[in-house]
UniProtKB/TrEMBL annotation:
<feature type="domain" description="Tetrapyrrole methylase">
    <location>
        <begin position="20"/>
        <end position="230"/>
    </location>
</feature>
<comment type="similarity">
    <text>Belongs to the precorrin methyltransferase family.</text>
</comment>
<dbReference type="GO" id="GO:0032259">
    <property type="term" value="P:methylation"/>
</dbReference>
<protein>
    <recommendedName>
        <fullName>uroporphyrinogen-III C-methyltransferase</fullName>
        <ecNumber>2.1.1.107</ecNumber>
    </recommendedName>
</protein>
<keyword id="KW-0949">S-adenosyl-L-methionine</keyword>
<dbReference type="InterPro" id="IPR014777">
    <property type="entry name" value="4pyrrole_Mease_sub1"/>
</dbReference>
<keyword id="KW-0456">Lyase</keyword>
<keyword id="KW-0808">Transferase</keyword>
<dbReference type="InterPro" id="IPR035996">
    <property type="entry name" value="4pyrrol_Methylase_sf"/>
</dbReference>
<dbReference type="Pfam" id="PF00590">
    <property type="entry name" value="TP_methylase"/>
</dbReference>
<keyword id="KW-0627">Porphyrin biosynthesis</keyword>
<comment type="pathway">
    <text>Porphyrin-containing compound metabolism; siroheme biosynthesis; precorrin-2 from uroporphyrinogen III: step 1/1.</text>
</comment>
<keyword id="KW-0489">Methyltransferase</keyword>
<dbReference type="GO" id="GO:0004851">
    <property type="term" value="F:uroporphyrin-III C-methyltransferase activity"/>
</dbReference>
<dbReference type="InterPro" id="IPR000878">
    <property type="entry name" value="4pyrrol_Mease"/>
</dbReference>
<keyword id="KW-0511">Multifunctional enzyme</keyword>
<dbReference type="InterPro" id="IPR014776">
    <property type="entry name" value="4pyrrole_Mease_sub2"/>
</dbReference>
Amino acid sequence: MPSRRVSYDLAEAPMAPGEVAIVGAGPGDPGLLTLRALSLLEQADCLVFDRLVSREVLALASPRARRFYVGKASRCHALTQDETNALLVRLAVEGRRVVRLKGGDPYIFGRGGEEAEVLIEHGIDFRVVPGITSAQGCAAYGGFPLTHRDHAQSVTFVTGHCKADGELALDWSALAMPHHTAVFYMGLANAGLISRQLQDHGLPASHPVALVERGTTPEQRRVITCLGELVETIAREELKPPTLIVVGEVVRLATTLAQPTPAAATCIEGETLELVPRRVVL
């Protein structure tokens, strides 16, 4: 049976020339994209996107949209954040309908707030569309909840790396509370510090930890370990970013609630990406 598009009426004004939409692309599975995000992708003249936005999500954008890759990895940035800000301003000033597409949710460790501040400073209209953040997607597809009446009554999302090469200064006592789930984004490089600090502040070495690599995608891997073996597990399994670290008793539910890994997606051929020149000025 041929596929059928879902019809919808979002009762929302269409994008205006010179407007920027800061949109959450979700953790990878295109089925987790919101209808509002899909509507804006179809309207975009320009698509400015990060490294963690999946090819399947990008394929939903208008084929006429120019694509600008501004992804960041550790010590390897296609553009600095200032240059990305400048690009958004330039495209908007040129009258383009710009979708700034970010993995997960743009306001959860996505620098969406910083970009919104720049747009306001330059008098540029914008809207924000939330997305399913990695913690939600990785937990659901990894087979465990983030909260549970018997195991965790609170959850904290934590950035696992610093803005600069400084100390990861966190409220470790709060993160090591009982009946609590702590989710570390971008934490692989500091896994040893995370393990040591949580144990120093009261959690046992046996406390369960889930590692979810490339969550919600066909390449998803879920590894269950404990705080005392966290560093060794990461090395043994050769886990790479993006990998989420989830610490908490809820992880024990993964043995009973786990679901199959998402079905393999069809490879999209022939997609071309427009590389942004390094010199971008306001």
